[in-house]
Write a structure and sequence with these properties.
The complex is a heterodimer of chains A (425) and B (185).
Chain A: H1 27-32, H2 37-43, H3 47-57, H4 69-74, E1 85-90, H5 100-106, H6 108-121, E2 126-131, H7 136-151, E3 167-172, H8 182-189, E4 213-217, H9 218-230, H10 232-236, E5 246-253, E6 259-264, H11 269-276, E7 286-290, E8 299-300, H12 310-315, E9 326-329, H13 334-348, H14 354-371, H15 377-389, H16 398-412, H17 414-421
Chain B: H1 29-39, H2 49-60, H3 65-75, H4 79-86, E1 100-105, H5 108-111, H6 115-126, E2 139-144, E3 156-158, E4 161-163, H7 171-184
Parallel strand pairs in B: 1-2
Antiparallel strand pairs in B: 1-3, 3-4
Classes of the chains: A alpha/beta (425), B alpha+beta (185).
Chain lengths: 425, 185
């Protein structure tokens, strides 16, 4: 089920080359495919050298924010005063995103190798892979690979006879979107409610168990081994100056061929939707696209001719996010779709900040009222006001996340709201 | 006793149909083994809290107040703190659920692919209202937030299994598959 469609990329692929090949999950086969070569090279390198290669490659965090990975690693203390930790964020739960699960599912050893190389770069002795609780079938695959790697000496004491020790533990959540936020993840990992914390202190100063910690996304870490093996220039042959490399896309909604595709960054968004995914079924037209997962601003059908890079989508007033376009066809009720998105954020608010706890629920309730035909024109002003109240005033960006799709839907599809309201003041 | 490597002790499926209920979690060899292994993976005892809540559910099908107290004792936490954590997460069942816990995603990508209709169909077919246990104890149906399989909407999770591309029409088929796996056991 859910087998990913093959990618259309003519150049070599990095992450998805072995998707669909169950043999790739086994260590022996994986070694035959060149697995753990990056780790072997990294063991011969100084932590600073590994970080430099990744920094030069321009790899950016694939969890949505797009922060440069190598730069993040440099924030870790150069002199150790206690243990360092690496957390791999596999709490994939942004509506629209389903890429990390494919990495766990098909190439678990690639992720393990990426984790170990990153751990060496930041001088961590323990890696935690935090997987969302719902991903049982994929976690089980990862678990088997971890045990196999432990038994073969790729994880644990004296890795590959090098004298270097690094442990790895798989930890699962239990259904909380906010555990995907890095400080929320750390709260959850240490046995707490997944409540985000104010920064500073940043994780690199005080993270899990109060120790320096780096949190990286699954897809980010999975890209690391081949960068180490092939070098930063090799990785830069794909993508743009500011957004190098390839990206795993998650395409959903009204599409002929939804699914995962690994594509070079910079491919026009319209090509992803119309060429790669075959456009909208039944000859229907696109009404709107939410390009980077549900927390990004909606684009109309006329706004899709943008390069799919971090900077390109930002210029278009939206965000690449996790590269998870949700396509809505011409028959979609935008108010109803927006209400469903707001329901999600209202449900997943951790409740620490009043603006978010109350505001996301108000947004959902007002949208429900408009959807039911009981709205008033003044509700639209209230929604705009809430957009202001929910932006930049909370510990984390969950509240901001509902504003991006909400404001864009109000700006671009006001006629649909007004049609449901029918002129009531 | 299920043999579990310490590295993955906190990552075992905990929504399972084949329960092995116990009165006290850490009274038998398996319980003590899980606790010890989990404790060995975190610098603080509190780190083992989520793994142990998950283990309680793996054994008993839900996380009872008694289990929370026992976990609190083992990890040197207060029962109130343990409860505050357990209630934060939706996947820990705070009361008994059906043998098959059916979670239907109705989030945005499933919403535009008839997710709500699939949810209604499951309620109708199992004769339950959202969240309640069916009379025969077999089913609990709830609406879930994004299950992370948006390209294959509508997505339904039953215990530790994923069913993808579910339509209202294919709901009876999903239930039949559950019946079948039941009779095979």
């Amino acid at each position: 089920m859910g087998f990913p469609h093959s990618h259309d990329l003519e150049v070599g692929t990095i992450l998805s080359r072995h998707f669909g090949d169950p043999k790739a999950r086994e260590l022996e086969t994986w070694l035959g495919y060149g697995g753990y070569e990056g780790l072997k090279q990294a063991i011969g390198m100084e932590p600073g050298e590994i970080t430099t290669v990744v920094k030069d490659s321009g790899l950016r965090g694939r969890g949505g924010a797009g922060f440069p990975t190598g730069l993040k690693w440099t924030f870790m203390p150069q002199e150790k005063k206690g243990p360092h930790f690496l957390c791999c964020n596999a709490d994939e739960s942004e509506p629209g995103a389903f890429k990390d699960r494919e990495i766990l599912r098909w190439v678990p050893h690639l992720l393990i190798e990426g984790c170990l190389i990153a751990a060496r770069a930041i001088r961590a002795e323990h890696v935690y892979i935090y997987v969302r609780g719902e991903y049982f079938p994929f976690t089980s695959i990862l678990n088997d690979a971890v045990v196999e790697a432990y038994e073969a000496g790729y994880i644990g004491k004296n890795i590959l006879g090098s004298g270097w020790d690094c442990d790895l533990t798989v930890h699962i959540g239990a259904g909380a979107y906010i555990a995907g936020e890095e400080t929320g993840l750390m709260s959850s990992l240490t046995g707490g409610r997944a409540e985000p914390k104010i920064k500073p202190p940043f994780p690199a100063q005080s993270g899990v168990f109060g120790m320096p910690t780096t949190v990286n996304n699954v897809e980010t870490l999975a890209a690391v081994p081949m960068i180490v093996v092939n070098g930063s220039d090799w990785y830069r042959q794909w993508g743009t100056e500011k957004s190098p490399g390839t990206k795993l896309w998650c395409c959903s909604g009204h599409l002929v061929r939804p699914g995962n595709y690994e594509l070079e960054l910079g491919v026009p968004l319209k090509d992803v939707i119309y060429e790669v995914c075959g456009g909208v079924p039944d000859g229907k037209k696109v009404k709107a696209v939410i390009p980077g997962g549900s927390s990004t601003a909606m684009l109309t059908a006329d706004e899709l001719d943008v390069p799919s890079t971090y900077e390109g989508l930002q210029e278009a007033g939206s965000s690449l996010g996790t590269a998870s376009p949700i396509v809505l066809n011409e028959d979609t009720n935008i108010v109803s779709a927006m209400r469903r998105i707001a329901d999600f954020y209202a449900h997943e608010s951790c409740g620490q900040c009043v603006q978010c706890r109350e505001g996301t629920s108000w947004v959902a309730q007002i949208l429900k009222r408009i959807e039911a035909g009981d709205g008033r024109l003044s509700d639209l002003d209230t929604l705009y006001d809430l957009c202001e109240q929910l932006t930049g005033r909370t510990i984390c960006v969950l509240a901001d996340s509902v504003v991006f799709p909400l404001r864009s839907s109000l700006d671009k599809f006001r006629n649909e709201y007004e049609a449901l309201i029918g002129g009531r003041a | 006793m299920k043999k579990v490597h310490p590295a993955v002790v906190g990552a075992q499926p905990f929504q399972v149909a084949d329960l092995r209920p116990v009165d006290r979690l850490f009274a038998d060899a398996e319980g003590r083994d899980r606790l010890e292994k989990a404790l060995s993976r975190y610098p603080e005892k509190k780190g083992a809290l989520l793994p142990m809540l998950a283990y309680a559910q793996e054994r008993n099908g839900w996380v009872s107040p008694e289990a929370m107290e026992e976990i609190a004792g083992a990890l040197e936490l207060t029962p109130a703190y343990v409860r505050s954590v357990a209630t934060f997460y939706t996947m820990y069942a705070k009361r008994p659920v059906g043998r098959y816990w059916i979670q239907v995603c109705t989030c945005i990508s499933c919403h535009v692919n008839r997710g709500e209709e699939v949810f209604e169909k499951f309620l109708e077919q199992t004769g339950t209202r959202a969240g309640e246990v069916s009379e025969d104890g077999r089913y609990t149906v709830i609406e879930a937030e994004c299950l992370g399989a948006c390209g294959f909407a509508t997505v339904v999770q039953v215990n530790d299994r994923y069913f993808e591309n579910v339509t209202p029409e294919s709901v009876p088929e999903v239930l039949a598959q559950l019946e079948q796996s039941d009779s095979e056991e």
